[in-house]
Design goal:
The protein has 3 helices and 8 strands. It has 200 residues and is an alpha+beta fold.
C-alpha cells in the first residue's frame, strides 16, 4: 500500500508540472517583443522593460477605442509595459507575434495624464519614436464578427480581415492542448498506480 501511494503521488506531481508548463505557454507578454531600439543616429540604445506602476490607469480596449475611433469590440490590448531608455529621442520596433500582413497595430504612450495614440501600422510590427518614455502599449484590431453580414443570396458574406486573430487562436490551442495533456497524464497515472498496486 505504501508503495502504491508513493507511486501515485509521484505520478500526480509529474502531471501537475506538465499541466503548469502548458498553461504557462501563450502568455500575453510573449505576443509582443522589442526587436530594436535606436537613437536618432541609428545607434543602439540601452533600454529596460518593467511592469507598469499600479497607479497608472490600465490601457483598455475602451481607452484605445476613444483614441482610434475603432469599436472597442474590435480591439485587443496585447502589451503594456514601462519602457525606459538612457537616450532620447529613441525609436523602437515592436514585433507582434501571430500577426499577419493585414493586422492593424496601434502604439500608445502614457503622457502622464492619459494614454495617447502615437502611430498606427499594418503588418507584423510597428515602429514608434518617443521623445519621452513612460508606460507604452501595443493594441491590435481583430477581425470583426461576420455572422450578421449577408450578401444578395442571403448567404453569409465573407468579411475582409481587419486584423490578426492568432492570439485568440493560440489561447484556444493552449487550452485544448492543456486538457489533452492532463487527461493523458492522469490516465497514465492510474495505469501506473494500478499496476503498482497489483504488483504489491
Amino acid at each position: 500500500m505504501k508503495k502504491f501511494l508513493t507511486t501515485l503521488l509521484s505520478t500526480l506531481a509529474i502531471v501537475s508540472i506538465c499541466a503548469t508548463s502548458v498553461f504557462a505557454t501563450g502568455s500575453t507578454e510573449d505576443l509582443v517583443d522589442i526587436t530594436s531600439g535606436v537613437d536618432s543616429n541609428n545607434n543602439k540604445v540601452t533600454y529596460s522593460v518593467s511592469d507598469v506602476d499600479a497607479a497608472v490607469p490600465a490601457l483598455t480596449a475602451e481607452v484605445a477605442s476613444a483614441a482610434t475611433g475603432v469599436p472597442a469590440s474590435e480591439l485587443k490590448v496585447l502589451w503594456q509595459k514601462d519602457l525606459t531608455s538612457d537616450t532620447l529621442p529613441a525609436t523602437f520596433t515592436f514585433n507582434v507575434n501571430g500577426a499577419d500582413a493585414t493586422t492593424e497595430v496601434y502604439s500608445f504612450h502614457w503622457n502622464g495624464s492619459a494614454w495617447e495614440l502615437m502611430n498606427k501600422a499594418t503588418g507584423t510590427s510597428i515602429t514608434t519614436t518617443y521623445t519621452s518614455l513612460s508606460p507604452v502599449g501595443i493594441v491590435i484590431r481583430v477581425k470583426a464578427a461576420s455572422a450578421a453580414n449577408t450578401n444578395d443570396d442571403n448567404k453569409p458574406a465573407t468579411t475582409p480581415s481587419t486584423g490578426a486573430t492568432s492570439p485568440k487562436t493560440g489561447e484556444s490551442v493552449v487550452l485544448y492542448t492543456s486538457i489533452s495533456v492532463v487527461v493523458i497524464a492522469c490516465s497514465a497515472a492510474f495505469v501506473v498506480a494500478a499496476t503498482s498496486k497489483k504488483n504489491d
